[in-house]
């Protein structure tokens, strides 16, 4: 398909352009090989990926790549080669994001009891590293190698047409991605700038960032070809390639940092954390809180953990209100009248067991109310805090 597009362009039926270096030849075959793989991959992945931004970016990148590839063969322009590699990197990245989206939706199992939500971060990180190595590294090296042997590109009118068409296509994809990011920011109650840097879903942000870089790269490529045409100096062509490579490098570094923070284990937003803590502090059965922590386990999903010093008196009162205190009082009075230690011990054991069960019920209640308060909290771990006693302190100091 790609070769047919390239051959159909005027000028290609003649002798093919001369490749100026080993890396250019390698990139040619690498690009063609990847295009075949990615075409089959996209047909598979789109069936499982429902996010509009990723699907739009995938198809747009494939179309733009096909056009750029044909024009690069016709023009032998270094900046167009940079744009071809840019599109391959973008296409590969969107495919990896789509796979991450599909994989992250798998249900929890015995090996991964908290689910696979973080898989999205893993594949986003892998795609960012790919952009840095393939997109940025190869493009910069190609540009530097051709600084001193630059030749004026051929058939620049076709390159100009493809740049204009690609700008429209990539711009449409960018608009869809921006809408997805705005929707995500509104859903989390965050400003757009804060969501780009600290939002829970890296997928739409990655798509928007890459589409923005693609549009900027097309502007750079167009400016390079205009400079070559106006001045007659071919050096602006490899310079454009180097600038595009550096642009991809900056995008890759941003995405690597963002996903690195998510994989290390980032806390949920201060606003949501404070909301949970204030709720717990106001609950009558809670005396004090210790070691409260949270962690993002997936885009918009969290785990919350806290140690609580419970108010035993309130726990008992709530239990007696539910079950009736009169029956327990009667049993204790009868055992006291009979002066039967065995009967008294049995009643006390039963009462203690019921109080422990009541404490478990209070924990369950708090966990459900926390999840209702912040729906993104999927797992709540509440432990009873054991304050240090004199025996514990003396034992620790001895050690």
UniProtKB/TrEMBL annotation:
Main location: membrane
GO molecular function: monoatomic cation transmembrane transporter activity
Every Cation efflux protein transmembrane domain range: 55-263
The protein, known as: Metal tolerance protein C4 isoform C
GO cellular component: endoplasmic reticulum; membrane
Key words, A-Z: Membrane, Transmembrane, Transmembrane helix, Transport
Native source species: Glycine soja
InterPro entries assigned to the protein according to its UniProt record, in alphabetical order: Cation_efflux, Cation_efflux_TM, Cation_efflux_TMD_sf, SLC30A9
SUPFAM superfamilies: Cation efflux protein transmembrane domain-like
Domain of life: Eukaryota
Cellular localisation: Membrane
Entry's Gene Ontology BP terms: intracellular zinc ion homeostasis; zinc ion transport
Its membrane topology: Multi-pass membrane protein
Transmembrane segments: 29-49, 121-138, 158-181, 213-232, 238-256
């Amino acid at each position: 398909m790609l070769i047919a597009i390239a051959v159909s362009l005027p000028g290609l039926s003649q002798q093919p352009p001369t490749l100026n270096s080993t890396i250019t030849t390698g990139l040619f075959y690498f690009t063609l090989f990847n295009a075949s793989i990615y075409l089959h991959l996209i047909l598979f992945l789109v069936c499982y990926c429902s996010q509009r931004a990723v699907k739009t970016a995938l198809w747009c990148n494939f179309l733009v790549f096909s056009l750029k590839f044909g024009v690069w063969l016709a023009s032998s322009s270094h900046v167009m080669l940079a744009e071809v590699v840019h599109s391959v990197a973008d296409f590969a990245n969107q495919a990896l994001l789509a796979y991450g989206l599909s994989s992250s939706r798998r249900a929890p199992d015995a090996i991964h009891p908290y689910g696979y939500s973080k898989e999205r971060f893993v594949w986003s990180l892998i795609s960012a590293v790919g952009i840095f190595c393939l997109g940025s590294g190869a493009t910069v090296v190609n540009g530097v190698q051709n600084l001193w042997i630059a030749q004026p590109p051929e058939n620049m009118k076709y390159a100009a047409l493809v740049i204009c068409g690609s700008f429209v296509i990539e711009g449409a994809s960018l608009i869809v991605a921006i809408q997805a990011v705005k929707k995500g920011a509104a859903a989390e109650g965050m400003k757009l700038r804060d969501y780009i840097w600290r939002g829970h879903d890296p997928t739409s942000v990655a798509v928007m960032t890459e589409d923005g870089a693609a549009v900027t790269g097309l502007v750079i490529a167009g400016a390079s070809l205009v400079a070559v045409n106006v001045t007659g100096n071919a050096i602006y062509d490899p310079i454009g390639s180097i600038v595009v490579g550096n642009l991809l490098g900056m995008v890759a570094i941003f995405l690597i940092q963002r996903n690195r923070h998510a994989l290390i284990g980032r806390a949920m937003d201060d606003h949501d954390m404070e909301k949970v803590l204030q709720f717990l502090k106001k609950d009558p059965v809670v005396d004090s809180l210790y070691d409260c922590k949270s962690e993002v386990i997936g885009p918009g999903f969290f785990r919350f953990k806290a140690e609580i010093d419970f108010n035993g008196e309130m726990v008992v009162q709530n239990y007696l209100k539910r079950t009736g205190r009169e029956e327990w009082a009667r049993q204790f009075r009868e055992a006291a009248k009979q002066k039967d230690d065995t009967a008294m011990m049995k009643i006390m054991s039963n009462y203690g067991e019921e109080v422990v069960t009541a404490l478990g019920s209070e924990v369950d209640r708090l966990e459900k109310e926390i999840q209702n308060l912040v729906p993104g909290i999927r797992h709540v771990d509440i432990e009873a805090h054991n304050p240090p006693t004199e025996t514990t302190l003396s034992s620790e100091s001895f050690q």
